[in-house]
Amino acid sequence: MLPWAQSTILTVHSIRPSSCVNILNQTEGLVYCNLGLYPDNRTLPSTKPLLRLQTLILSNILADVTVRFLALLTSSSLRRFQIPEEPSITDTLSAFLARFNCILQELCITNSTRSRDFYQRTYPSVKLECVKRLFREDFEDYGNLESDGQLGTEIVFFFQLDSVNELPPPTYLTSTELDGNIS
Fold it and tell me: Do 45 and 67 meet the contact criterion of CB atoms below 8 Å apart?
């Protein structure tokens, strides 16, 4: 069993939202979360509030994944947020920020088709850290998520420690190992 409850930083690339929600429900002390989600049609369970979460980075490509996943999350501590642009980005962000009831300090919108000025007018109280225009070639590593029917999932754990010298090595799991370690 992995020590999810001790994790304060979580980076997960290429994971199903349903598996990710199961992990998030066990990591209530999370401060930083970077998620690369890919679509699946599974019903998403509800999530516990992530009361300490300050930074959330979503790097999935498809809009429906973003909207469905964000509808589950709650954190009043969120300060920095990165999200890929999707067709209804302003509605999605407005609903998300209202539900979070947080004072967002930095917003980064990737794969943007709109200008920085557009977002600055829409969210005047938020510092726009960046508005990036990314192109398909920027997502080459997401191009072939499955090979031989096996999805590779990388998880990097950092634990709250007294000394950097005590930091354990990163843990790398396949999706099969990951599914077996989520309870």
Answer: no
Query: What are the distances in angstroms from CA 30 to CA 3, 101, 131, 134?
Result: 12, 18, 26, 28
**Phi and psi torsions of 54, nearest 5°:** -110, -30
Give this prediction's pTM.
0.68
Segments making up each domain of the chain, as ranges: 4-181
Tens-digit pLDDT profile for residues 73-82: 888 888 888 8
Residue labelled with tokens 């980064």: 108
Nearest-CA neighbor of 57 among 31, 27, 87?
31
DSSP code per residue over the chain? ---GGGEEEEEEEEE-HHHHHHHHTT-TT--EEEEEE----SPPPP----TT--EEEE--S-HHHHHHHHTT---S---EEEEE--TTHHHHHHHHHHHHT----EEEEES--S-HHHHHHHSTTSEEEEE----GGGGGGGTT-EETTEEEEEEEEEE--S-GGGPPPP-EEEHHHHHHH--
